[in-house]
Every structure is written in C-alpha cells, then in structure tokens.
Amino acid sequence: MGLGLGGGGGMAMINRNHVVSFLAGAALPTLLLFFLASDRVSEQLAIVSSWGSGGSSSAAAADHDLRGAGGDAAPPPAQQEKFPGLPELLPKVAMEDRTVIITSVNEAWAAPGSLLDLYRDSFKNGEGIAHLLDHVLVVAVDPAGFRRCKAVHPHCYLLHVKSINLTSATRFMSREYLELVWTKLSLQQRVLELGYNFLFTDCDMVLFRDPFRHIAVYADMSTSSDDYSAARAPLDNPLNTGLYYVKATSQSVEMLRYWQAARPRFPGAHDQAVFGHIKHELVAKLRARIEPLDTLYFGGFCEYHDDLARAVTMHADCCVGLDTKVHDLTDIAADWKNYTGMSPEERKKGGFKWTYPTRCRNSIGWRKPVHP
C-alpha cells in the first residue's frame, strides 16, 4: 500500500488538496518578495554593478550614505536608467568616502591647449592634490569632447542632451547653454540618489590645494561666491555654483529636485540664477544648510585675494569668451608655478601678486565689489 496520488477515492482527494495548499504556500512568499523588491530594482542593480567593478559598495552602505539630519531618503522609483552607465562608472571614480569630483566639457573646452588641459595640469602642479585627479569624472556633452577626454583622462562620461549641438563654445544663455546646465543638474541629482557625494567644479578653473580641507562638514551644500563678506548674513553673499559640494543625504536629493522644479517659475534663467532666487526657500522649507565659501580660498576673477599661501582655486568667472578664459587662466597657472618654485625664505618676504586678469574683466566691464 503506497502513499502516492495514483489511487482514487477520498484519500487521493485529500492528498491533492494538501499538494495544492503546499504549492500555494510556497509560491506566496516568493511573489511577496518580488513585489516588495520591485521598487528597488534599479538601486540593487547599481549595487551589484559596483561589486562587479571592484567597489566596496553594499546595500547597507548605500542606504547609510543617503541618511542625514533630514531623515531617510526615499529610493528612486524603478525605471529605466536615465543616465546609462553612470551607476557602473561611479564606483571606479569615487574616493573611499564615496565622493567624486565632477566637471564638464564640450569639444572646444576639451581641445588640446584649452581648458581641460589647464584644469588637469593644475592638479599635477598643485600642493599634494595630484591623487585627486583619479577621482575626477569628466562629463562630455558631445562625442568629440568625449573622444578627447578619453585620450587624456581615465574617467569620462558622455552626456546626451536632447539632440542639440554643443560641439562649439556654447554661447552663454543660449538655448543650448540652458539645456546643458539643467541636464547637468539632473545628472548630479542622480549621483546623489546613487549614494555619492560630489564636488562640482566648472572646467574654467585651476586648483592649487585640497578644496575639501576648507568645506564645512555640517553643511548640506557649500558653494563658492562671486563676492564674499563675513559681515553679511551667509545667504546674502552672491553665490556662484561654478564650484559646490553636496553631501548624499535625503535632504540634498530633495534640494536638487526642488531646484529643478523651480525652473518654470523663472523662464529663460540658468541654474545659478534660479538657485539665487530660491536659496532662502531651500533653507526655510527644506531646512537645508547652505554655506558660502570665502573668496580668500576659493577665488575667481569676480573677486580674489593676492594671498597665494592660502589660495585653493581660481575660477574664470566674470569672463566672457573661451579664448579670453584660456589666456587669463594660463597667466594664473604660470604665476602659481613661479610661486611654488620659490624657496621658503622668498615666500616669506611676500609681495607676490596674481597677474591681473585684464582680458576677462574687460570682457564684462568689471567693477570692484563693494562690501558692507
């Protein structure tokens, strides 16, 4: 006498009912896990990808990095990756604390002898910052810029921007320029969603020292200024988003979403102008902590200090024209080489000044800022 299902009668019916109940019970947890996990598919794929790239990411680490004073970040909804390849690339670029440095170029900015070369050389000639170049992600906005980037730099990403031509020096405030800056902001939001902090810098900039040593650890966002005065309330300083650091927290993700959502309220404005309009809203509504950076360290052609012992960056802001930027930044890079070539005794004598950025300041009719 067996216990199989081949016989007839009540016993067979009971056994069949048991099997059906067993199969349904076994399938239910599987289905439940599938539906619970479905809204985190893209996030988990990014984590698996980082393992495959040799990164040290884990689900716990990614979740931890997106926690801050503002609470837990809601994971992005499952969808096709808006920036294909980015989740796989970031673990290769990031520092141990999951921070990446981001800059962007087009064909003209990446050409030999142009801004990308000046930018990269500044890391090599700076004080103890050559290693940071390994953590720079160069975002190219056209195929020619991407090819040039790949020829000189290990970490390049091609950003597709709505079928517009960005291969030439894009005219400031043109339709192409506006689409570019807003798309870059969307990419930066995705970097945060994936659990990475970032320091964004325009490529029309040279670096001298480690910028992270002068960025407040408590702030959600630290950004440079065109004209800084400690006598002002922090947000009353005119902020320049040519250089800014953002921590990967739920609060910072929401801040970038709010920033982009504000675009229609200010038609024709670029990202920096909109940020200037809404910065107080970000603090009042989202409780974001935004910290301006002192031009004593993070200078630019709008305002800088002739204190080379403390200079960290120099930005070709308050300047119009690619050739103009390259010319005046080349002078700055030469000044830095002369300064670092001095003996300690010569440096102590002081009196060293940056070459005045004549072409850039003339290009906008610059006037000296008036401080309170």
From TrEMBL:
Transmembrane segments: none annotated. Residues 51-82 are annotated as: Disordered. Coiled coil: none annotated. Residues 131-329 form the Nucleotide-diphospho-sugar transferase domain. InterPro entries: At1g28695/At4g15970-like, Nucl-diP-sugar_transferase. Pfam families: Nucleotid_trans (PF03407). Signal peptide: none annotated. PANTHER family: EXPRESSED PROTEIN-RELATED, OS01G0920800 PROTEIN. This is Nucleotide-diphospho-sugar transferase domain-containing protein. It comes from Oryza sativa subsp. indica (Rice). The lineage of its organism: Eukaryota, Viridiplantae, Streptophyta, Embryophyta, Tracheophyta.
